[in-house]
Amino acid sequence: MLILGSMPSPKSREAAFYYMHLRNRFWPVMEALFADPANSLDHTGGSPESRRVFALRHGIALWDVIASCDITGASDASIRNTVPNDLTPILRGAPISHIFTTGAKAAQLYRKFIAPELAAAGFDIDMTPLPSTSPANAAKHLSDLIDDYRNAFRAAGISVNA
C-alpha cells in the first residue's frame, strides 16, 4: 500500500521523514494496526530510522502528493503554487495494491493532479481518503482514527490487527 500525505510538516522536513511531529497520531495508528503484539521489538519507536524499519517490515510505502509548493508552516490551507509528485515510477517499481491519502487536502490534490496522470499512464488503482492524523484534527480521537483506518484498510483487502 502507498500512503500519501499532502506535504511534510516543518518537523517532518527537519527530521527527513514522515509524520514526525510529536502530536501527529499517524505512527500510533500504524502501530495499533500492524505491530505484532507477540513481538516486543515490533513497534514504531520515535526515531526516523525505527519508523522506516517498521514501515518497510509491514509493506507501508510513504510519499506525498506534492513535490513542492508554497506553504506557511504546516497549514494545508495555505498551500499555493503546487507542483505534484510523479507517482508512475513508484507504481512501476513496487507492488502497490492500493493508495490512501491522509487528510482532505491530500485527497483533493490527488484527485486534481495525480489521478489524471495515472489514468493517462494506464494505471487503474483505487484511492481511499483517510482522515488526517495531524494535531490540527484534534477533534478526532485516536481510537476513532484507528477504527477509521482499520475499516479502510480491511475494505481494501489489507490485513490489520483486530
Automatic annotation (TrEMBL):
Organismal lineage: Bacteria, Bacillati, Actinomycetota, Actinomycetes, Bifidobacteriales
Organism (species): Bifidobacterium cebidarum
Superkingdom in the source lineage: Bacteria
NCBIfam families found in the cross-reference section: hypoxanDNAglyco
UniProt xrefs under InterPro entries: Hypoxan-DNA_Glyclase, Uracil-DNA_glycosylase-like_sf
Coiled-coil segments: none
Protein name: Uracil-DNA glycosylase
Gene3D superfamilies: Uracil-DNA glycosylase-like domain
